[in-house]
Specification:
Shape: rod-shaped
Number of domains: 1
Strand content: under 5%
Distance between the termini: 35 Å
Radius of gyration: 26 Å
Number of strands: 0
Structural class: mainly alpha
Helix content: over 70%
């Protein structure tokens, strides 16, 4: 089994076991790390200042958003750590398989060298 086969199996396993909430957390985490999210927030702050809305409400909204996003990003980060752990295991298995194949090739080369002498 090649290195790519291990990763293909790993990705298939990872996708098959995702719950809806985990998929949602991944999507939200991906979107909150984008330029569009940043620009949307900047636009919202500019509009808040332009219309001279109450700053106490702004503080409440931003604080609530920070709490929710922090939790979602932590969930996504935990999932990424699990994915990295599974990928490391797949890499280890592929390396073990490669080592066995290399040892077999080494034996064949040594046998050929013996025969040549």
């Amino acid at each position: 089994m090649t290195h790519y086969d291990y990763h293909r199996r790993l990705e298939k396993f990872r996708r098959a076991n995702l719950t809806k909430s985990e998929r949602m957390a991944d999507l939200i985490a991906a979107w909150t790390g984008s330029w569009s999210f940043l620009f949307l927030h900047l636009l919202g702050l500019i509009l808040w200042f332009f219309f001279k809305l109450n700053f106490n409400y702004l503080t409440l909204v931003v604080s609530f958003e920070a709490i929710v996003l922090m939790n979602i990003l932590l969930m996504a980060q935990n999932r990424q750590a699990l994915k990295d752990e599974l990928r490391d295991e797949a890499d280890y298995q592929a390396d073990k398989n490669s080592e066995l194949e290399i040892n077999e090739i080494k034996k064949i080369v040594l046998e050929i060298q013996k025969r040549r002498k």
